[in-house]
Write a structure and sequence with these properties.
The chain is mainly beta. The protein is 13% helix and 34% strand. The chain has 2 domains: 2-69, no CATH class; 78-283, Fumarylacetoacetate hydrolase, domain 2 (Alpha-Beta Complex), CATH 3.90.850.
């Protein structure tokens, strides 16, 4: 299934994309009120209930008529892995780490598909980072790596927009990673049953149609099971939490000369089998 959260005629809801992806089956029309969001469905373990209630429906809302929000607009935790592709580690000249580098984002730092990413007035160094997002379906603490895939609800595309000068203010990165509306998430949550081999996925990030990043998810330094095992040791994971797995080499900061995002640019993150996330860049007003 491809699940989206959307706003239509002033009302926020969630639903399932039809197979041709041009319409949405509004789940508010077919599910009980307590299952009123993607996060609520995941917390209730009700994905199969959604599947059964929507199977075969033609859809009642045209995709072209809605504003897409992040697939999970209200995660309790967004945890991002830094420098987790070998090509990115090489371009940063950072040494190998024994453990993942993990930092948080906040929910209000992300927007949905086709929504503008906002370059803050405080910077000229707004950078792109195309990434794969993992959405937790079954919570837990100290999850063994060998059990990790059983805790995944699905996958999505992520644009981990980075305010580079603020990121470098100190030894921790959160100040450059969580300005409002600097991260893109979407367009849909693709359930794990549709991604039989996540390591076989390919990720491409384009700016104005030009490929800037390209990698296989198999190139992650710390795999998705390793990330889940490590993160769930220091913090419990809950349904709806998001793990953003890292970006490949090719970011703007390390180009010669550096190339940063400008208002009017368009950034796309395409992941095979998952979708394409598109975000224009706007200056803060």
């Amino acid at each position: 299934m491809h699940l989206v959260t959307f706003r239509h005629n002033g009302r926020t809801s969630f639903g399932r994309l039809t197979r041709d992806s041009d319409a949405i089956i509004d789940c508010a029309d077919v599910l009980s009120p307590e299952l009123g969001s993607v996060r609520a469905v995941l917390a209730a373990g009700a994905l199969e209930q959604v599947r059964a209630a929507t199977e075969g429906s033609a859809g009642d809302v045209k995709l072209a008529d809605v504003e897409l929000l992040p697939p999970v607009p209200d995660p309790a935790k967004i945890l991002c892995a830094g420098v987790n592709y070998r090509t990115h580690r090489e371009e940063t000249s950072r040494p190998e780490n024994a453990y993942p580098t993990v930092f948080p984002r906040y929910a209000d730092s992300q927007v949905g598909h086709d929504q503008p990413l906002i370059r803050p007035t405080e910077t000229e160094s707004f950078d792109y980072e195309g990434e794969l997002a993992v959405v937790i379906g079954k919570g837990g603490r100290r999850i063994p790596a060998e059990d990790a895939f059983a805790h995944i609800a699905g996958y999505s595309c992520y644009q981990d927009g980075s305010v580079r000068d603020w990121q470098r203010h100190s030894g921790q990165w959160v100040t450059g990673k969580t300005f409002p509306a600097t991260g893109g998430f979407g367009p849909a949550l693709v359930t794990a049953d549709e991604v039989p081999d996540v390591a076989a996925l390919n990720l491409v990030c384009r700016v104005n149609g030009e490929v800037r990043q390209s990698a296989s998810v198999a190139d992650l330094i710390f795999s998705i099971p390793e990330l889940i095992a490590y993160i769930s040791t220091f913090t419990p994971l809950a349904p709806g939490d998001v793990i953003v797995t890292g970006t490949p080499g090719g970011v703007g900061l390390f180009r010669e000369p550096p190339v940063f995002l400008q208002p009017g640019d368009v950034v796309e993150v395409e992941i095979s089998g998952v979708g394409t996330l598109r975000n224009p860049i706007a200056g803060e007003i």
